[in-house]
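Reminder to self: tokens first, then the designed residues, so the page reads top to bottom the way the pipeline ran.
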């Protein structure tokens, strides 16, 4: 593909954002009612009014709390902070005789990987990333950092991003709106070539906010990516870089074939959320009328009806309030109490929590639960996520690990001669949510061991204890430093066989083993006793 100029990049970006506008009505409702603090719709981004109250239309916080708990539960289940949540293992292309050696090197790389990850802002960024994932589409930017934090993670709100899909449903091109102070452009992009108009703006108004277009576009011929930064106002290019891999991690909770963006659990729950919010709004209005009341007043020419409004505590001028003249002041009869809302409020809240996976643990006022029940509920959570669990591994965990290892390789922190493609090196999740699924396989193996052991020699002959132990260790994510290598295992087996042979020989020779008690049983036959000499006979006779 020929190198795109600034106008072509800007044109592709505008078309991508035009296609994204088809999703505006869906995502706008989700952010308005469930993630109001991250809402950039409703003109908040264009208006440049940060810090404004965005919860004026929210009357119930069930969706807000459940969305936060959804992100927290996914993070603790897949990316627990300050814990190892994945493992690097040799792929099928690695010969069996080299796998132990490769596994030891991968364990060292994995230890450095999590050391670098703990020094970065990953645990903060992944929480915001999962909040957007609850809506449907989450985007994260992974870049090289400084000496303090070698890698930086930026969770980009999906409002600022437009996508273009490639073959097989993968995201090829990413376009981002980016606002920045004029004086910070040179520090953000040291290799940028600033046009004269932008340079004058920096000199005259350094605090002025300018909007840039970031575009990461794949080059199918060279198999790399072109990274463009365009000044949006004049459509001039500030820089262009060639990248081996894309810095973007784009994850969709669930998607339909042919659509670029995903649909999350909030999209499914938004009808119940809007119904609950409207019910609470009407209930609060009814409660305010019930508390303050609405009154009528006789229109005697003193009160101006144009100044009367039907609000709690208001007075409405009327001709009369009954009788010949009627009371001067009387309450306005209401249509009835709005108690029917209590029937549906609890049902709506339970439905919202169930859709957002917020019903996996018992409430705090219940009795204590056993560890087995907690494990079963984690397995139920994995089952309820369905295909989203596999998509999280494929579109989130694997790209993050691959990009971080590539950056560490570029910075000289590790030397990675193998490719993370599943054939040379594969990424295996060992997070709590993944272990909950692995426990099912381990339980099946242990049941087989128990059943085979009860069947006598024929059943025991069906088992390979060393391979079973290796398989269980892999499923539990036990590091290779705590396990023996094949050579050490062979030495232990040979030593055990030699000890068994020595004990057998000692038993056959009648000699007790070293340090053991004397052998019991009939005395062994020894050599014949010699006859006493003649001197000894004379001495005895004397």
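Designed residues (542 positions):
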């Amino acid at each position: 593909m020929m190198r795109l100029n600034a106008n072509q990049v800007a044109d592709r970006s505008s078309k991508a954002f035009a296609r994204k506008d088809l999703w505006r009505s869906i995502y706008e409702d989700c952010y308005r009612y469930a993630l109001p603090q991250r809402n950039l719709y409703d003109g908040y981004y264009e208006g440049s009014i940060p810090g404004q109250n965005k919860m004026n239309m929210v009357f119930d916080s069930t969706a807000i709390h459940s969305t936060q708990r959804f992100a927290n539960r996914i993070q603790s289940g897949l990316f627990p902070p300050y814990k190892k949540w994945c493992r690097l293992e040799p792929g099928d292309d690695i010969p069996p005789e080299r796998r132990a050696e490769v596994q030891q090197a991968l364990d060292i790389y994995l230890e450095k990987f999590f050391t670098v990850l703990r020094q970065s802002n990953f645990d903060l960024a992944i929480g915001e990333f999962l909040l957007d994932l609850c809506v449907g589409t989450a985007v994260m930017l992974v870049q090289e950092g400084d000496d303090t934090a070698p890698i930086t993670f930026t969770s980009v709100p999906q409002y600022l991003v437009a996508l273009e899909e490639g073959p097989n449903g993968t995201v090829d091109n990413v376009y981002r709106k980016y606002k920045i102070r004029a004086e910070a452009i040179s520090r953000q992009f040291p290799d940028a070539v600033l046009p004269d108009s932008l340079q004058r703006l920096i000199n005259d108004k350094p605090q002025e906010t300018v909007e840039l277009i970031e575009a990461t576009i794949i080059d199918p011929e060279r198999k790399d990516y072109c990274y463009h930064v365009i000044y949006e106002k004049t459509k001039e290019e500030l820089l262009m870089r060639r990248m081996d891999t894309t810095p973007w991690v784009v994850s969709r909770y669930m998607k339909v074939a042919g659509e670029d963006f995903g649909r999350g659990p909030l999209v499914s729950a938004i009808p119940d959320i809007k119904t609950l919010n409207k019910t609470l709004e009407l209930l609060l209005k009814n409660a305010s009328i019930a508390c303050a009341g609405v009154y009528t007043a006789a229109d005697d020419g003193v009160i101006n009806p144009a100044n009367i409004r039907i609000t709690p505590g208001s007075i409405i001028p009327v001709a009369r309030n009954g009788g010949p003249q009627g009371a001067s002041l009387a309450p306005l009869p209401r249509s009835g109490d709005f108690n029917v809302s209590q029937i549906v409020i609890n049902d709506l809240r339970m439905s919202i929590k169930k859709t957002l996976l917020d019903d996996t643990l018992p409430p705090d006022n219940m009795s204590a639960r056993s560890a087995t029940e907690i494990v079963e509920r984690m397995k139920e959570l994995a089952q309820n996520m369905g295909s989203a669990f596999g998509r999280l591994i494929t579109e989130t965990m694997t790209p993050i690990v691959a990009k971080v290892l590539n950056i560490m390789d570029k910075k000289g922190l590790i030397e990675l001669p193998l490719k993370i493609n599943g054939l040379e090196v594969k990424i295996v999740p060992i997070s709590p949510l993944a272990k909950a699924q692995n426990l099912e396989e381990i339980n099946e193996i242990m049941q087989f061991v128990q059943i085979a052991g009860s069947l006598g020699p024929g059943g025991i002959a069906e088992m390979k204890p060393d391979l079973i132990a290796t398989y269980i260790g892999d499923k539990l994510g036990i590091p290779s430093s705590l396990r023996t290598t094949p050579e050490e295992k062979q030495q232990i087996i040979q030593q055990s066989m030699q000890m068994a042979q020595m004990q057998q020989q000692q038993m056959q020779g009648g000699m007790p083993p070293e340090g053991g008690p004397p052998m019991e049983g009939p005395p062994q036959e020894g050599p014949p006793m010699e006859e006493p000499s003649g001197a000894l006979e004379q001495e005895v006779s004397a």
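Residues 519-542 have pLDDT under 50 and may be disordered.
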